[in-house]
Design a protein that fits this description.
single chain; 269 residues; mainly alpha; Receptor-associated Protein; 12 helices; 84% helix; T2SS_GspF_sf; cell membrane
Length: 269
Amino acid sequence: MPGALERGAGTVTALVERLIHRRGTPVDASTLELAAVKLRPQDFVFLVLVGSVVGFALGLLLSGVLLAILLAAVVPLGAKILLGLRISKRQKQFADQLDDSLQLMASNLRAGHSLPKALSSVAREAESPTSDEFVRIVNETRVGRDLGVALDMTAARMANEDFSWITQAIAINREVGGNLAEVLDGVANTIRQRNEIRRQVATLSAEGRLSALILMVLPFGLAGFLLMSNPGYLAPFTETTLGYGLMILAVVMLTIGGLWLRKVVEIKF
């Protein structure tokens, strides 16, 4: 039986892979790698499809077609949100670790090591995701890619403006010379001060972000509680055209409100 299940899963995965190659997919290998998801795109899509089927069946058992469609749609949406959250988390960790990485690079340069050796030291000794990104930089330069291009690609993947400054500083130093260790120390000090301000801003805006989260989750939590305890309370919404329209309107307004609250509490500098 397990062998049959494995063969069936392999067949479906192969079909998904052919479909991806033929029509493409919003989830590619680079996105999964950036989110630190160790799955192939076809495997990830297959798991999402299985989740949607399970959600559809669960919705049919609990209520009806409307809930089934809703749960089936929530699974891919949730997967996309989860990927975005994982990417944002890794990018934030990279930003928080950047000043320590620069100090390590500067120390290696002052000790007489070359820039590639300093990058290799960060790849070995830094924490993830910084170590992962620097390993990628080192490997790309070893196979012939220009160091500046590899650094620029890392800055783009991590969506980090500070690392773009570092890339520019290294590029200028390679052209005109100078003490790169002192430059990196200065950039690290600036980044450290910016990170302190960023953490203070995050602390001051925590109450607003928590309020936004509660306001977004509360309607769905209440609907789920009523669905489990007394589904009859939701009958006017699930059995009438007006109810469907009101639910759609509520979801649209919640989405708009959530995006607005996110912009209010998100402070950029």
